[in-house]
């Protein structure tokens, strides 16, 4: 299952709920780019960091901050970094029992043959508010306006890059969560996946 979309649209929440409901493995591919971005903030060279990445690096603290998000989006525009992270993602996607991956290019590049594809989106303001609440709960001192600005910058960079830009796959269903509760968004995602599995 491929779940893509812009920052803080609700991909992770939906992907985790879908994985739990259907018994699939779940990979948040943003963590790969965040882990590389964090290494770069600490002085590493992006490609070397991507090639040396281990599963343990994905569990490190501090990957969810806004600074690491911005660094992730910069390293994610480097084609060689993306290539270095490809095999791990494809191997995860093929695991027995099924998998759900969320990111920016899952339905377009990583898993073009995914059995179900969702593109999750929401208005800029709603996404910024959700992310602001998360960051604040995690102890980051940042205003809602700053979050909105950094989120727009990141989406613009992710959409404009030549390598695997953020865009819905031609065969993805677009799910706009602006006015949806978490429960309603998860229910809509599950319904789409059930339809896709039934039509196999
Ligand atoms: O959680 P949030 O939606 O804010 O971002 P994320 O999924 O953790 O991704 C962080 C950054 O990694 C994004 O802004 C993208 O630049 C990059 N990314 C990517 O290029 N391709 C992916 N499949 C996943 C993330």
Q: Mind explaining what this structure looks like?
A:
- It is a single chain.
- The protein contains 10 helices and 5 strands.
- Helix 1 (11-22) packs across helix 10 (182-198), helix 2 crosses helix 4 and helix 4 (66-75) packs parallel to helix 9.
- By secondary structure, the protein is an alpha/beta fold.
- Bound molecules: cytidine-5'-diphosphate (CDP).
- Residues 7-8, 29-30, 33-34, 69, 72-73, 76, 103-106, 154, 158 line the site of cytidine-5'-diphosphate (CDP).
What does this entry show, briefly?
The protein is α/β, with parallel strands linked by helices and 200 residues long. It has helices spanning 11-22, 30-41, 46-51, 66-75, 79-84, 86-93, 106-110, 124-137, 144-160, 182-198; strands at 2-4, 25-28, 99-103, 117-121, 173-176. The protein has one domain: Rossmann fold (3-Layer(aba) Sandwich).
H/E series: EHEHHHHHEHEHHEH
Bound molecules: cytidine-5'-diphosphate
- Tell me the count of domains: 1
CATH C-level class: Alpha Beta
**Could you please say which CATH topology applies here?**
Rossmann fold
Fraction in beta strands: 5-15%
Question: How does CATH name the architecture?
Answer: 3-Layer(aba) Sandwich
| Arithmetic mean pLDDT | 96
The total of beta strands comes to 5
Strand order of the largest sheet: 2-3-1-4-5
Class by SSE composition: alpha/beta
- Can you count the helices? 10
Kindly, what is the distance between the CA atoms of the first and last residues, rounded to a whole number of angstroms? 13 Å
């Amino acid at each position: 299952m491929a779940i893509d979309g812009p920052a803080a649209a609700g991909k992770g929440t939906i992907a985790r709920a879908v994985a739990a409901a259907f018994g699939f493995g779940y990979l948040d591919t943003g963590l790969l780019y965040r882990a590389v971005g964090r290494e770069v903030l600490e002085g590493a060279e992006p490609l070397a960091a991507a090639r040396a990445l281990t599963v343990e690096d994905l569990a490190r603290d501090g990957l969810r901050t806004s600074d690491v998000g911005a660094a992730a989006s910069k390293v994610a525009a480097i084609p060689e970094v993306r290539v270095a992270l490809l095999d791990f993602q494809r191997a995860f996607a093929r695991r027995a029992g099924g998998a759900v991956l969320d990111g920016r290019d899952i339905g377009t590049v990583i898993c073009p043959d995914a059995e179900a594809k969702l593109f999750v989106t929401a208005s800029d303001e709603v996404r910024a508010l959700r992310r602001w609440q998360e960051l604040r709960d995690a102890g980051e001192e940042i205003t809602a306006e700053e979050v909105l600005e950094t989120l727009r910058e990141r989406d613009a960079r992710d959409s404009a890059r030549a390598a695997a830009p953020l865009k819905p796959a031609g065969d993805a269903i677009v799910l706009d969560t602006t006015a949806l509760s978490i429960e309603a968004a998860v229910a809509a995602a599950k319904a789409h996946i059930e339809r896709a599995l039934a039509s196999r």
